[in-house]
Amino acid sequence: MNDLLTYAAQRDTARSPFEQIKLTTEAGTKYWSARDLMPLLGYETWRRFEESITRAKFTAANQNQPIESLFVGTVKKSEGGRPAEDIHLARYACYLVAMNGDPRKPEVAAAQSYFAIQTRAAEVQAPPAKPSGAELLAMAVIEAQAMIAAKDQQIAELEPKADYVDTFVADEDLITFRTLASDLKIGENELRAILLDRKWIYKQESSRWSEKEQRKKLIYRYSAMADKKKYFHAVLVHDAPRFRGEVMHTLKLTPEGAVAVNRLITQMRRSAATLQGPKGPVA
């Protein structure tokens, strides 16, 4: 961990562990294996690391970036010879993964610095002469992370809060669209349509072959808009068919989101009642 921070702070890219695991395609394109990158960011399990990748994909989608070329799904043989899911990450994809990683991990801060610097250098096709832009931001992140790492008591206070969010808010306290729609006495599809129209969520479409019906069927995946993410939580569904090569997820509402949607529907009903008036629609 200390080596990672040292390499990042000194901008010694040649000695950086992130540089050592960099791969190159036959066409000369640089990329990183998510499986190789995972331990350098301080993650021990693929499931936890994949959550950061999923959040990175959401960020890329909200920025209208080409997800398919930034995150390329593949298979990697493990040490035991068994195939394991892997993702080839472009340089910018690595940067997004680091930015969406666990902010309490100093390794994540080191990755943020490295990939921010390299992404900026690639944009201008030459290493920057002095820190600026994304590099300054990355250095600020490293300094903040070092301060957090030095304060064990503060980290200890953060742990239970993170555990609460992961254990309770991510599971028991989440609310389905069907349940909320029933409470609001409207149809589930109508509720989704309202949130789509108000740009609280967005819908992606794909298709898969149905052996039972012997035809292609449309499938949809709903995700939260960037400014409404606190209202929703994407629950990964690993045993469902993959969506455009990615792990499928089901969008649910957080308690705060349920309150906000309830407030929205109430306001809409009041506005409709005001326009209609006591004797029918206003002429």
From TrEMBL:
Domain Bro-N residue range list: 21-111
Xref: InterPro entries: Ant_C, BRO_N_domain
Domain of life: Bacteria
All copies of domain Antirepressor protein C-terminal, residue ranges: 153-265
A molecular-function term among this protein's GO annotations: DNA binding
Protein name: Phage antirepressor KilAC domain-containing protein
Organism per entry: Glutamicibacter ectropisis
Biological classification of the source: Bacteria, Bacillati, Actinomycetota, Actinomycetes, Micrococcales
